[in-house]
Amino acid sequence: MDLFEKYMDPFDPNRKAKFKAQFDCGELEVDPAARTSVPEREILDALKRHLQMDFGERSAEEDFENFCAITFWRGNARSKYISKNGIGFSIETDFDQNQTRVALLDERLL
């Protein structure tokens, strides 16, 4: 079991909630390109920020769209982050599919 699976496994007895998520991310999918280009710890830290409604490098208008999606559990909440090595990546929660996807910005249009 890798770090992502362990972090997201709600049945892991060693998992302790160190932060309060504002919404559920559902099933987590990390694209292979993002997994190899961005360190795991940075992806997990960004995921925590995303779940706490800190959407990273987004405009106020985009944040408002995210707040609406979260409020009504419809559509998508999108975040953009930049890793310490300068690689841009996105985290997108699709409430209709109950899934969150991490991808490089080059592979994903926001």
Written description of the protein model:
There is one protein chain. This protein has four helices and four strands; from the N terminus they run H-E-H-H-H-E-E-E. It has 110 residues and is α+β, with helices and mostly antiparallel strands. It has one domain. The protein has a four-stranded mixed β-sheet. A hairpin with a 5-residue loop joins strand 2 (76-82) and strand 3 (88-94). The model has no long low-confidence stretch (mean pLDDT 84).
Unreliable sequence segments: none
Question: What level of helicity do the residues show?
Answer: 25-40%
Total of domains: 1
Q: Which series of helices and strands comes N to C?
A: HEHHHEEE
User: Helix- and strand-based class?
Assistant: alpha+beta
Radius of gyration: 13 Å
Oligomer: single chain
Strand count, sense and closure of the main sheet? Answer: 4 strands, mixed
Number of DSSP E strands: 4
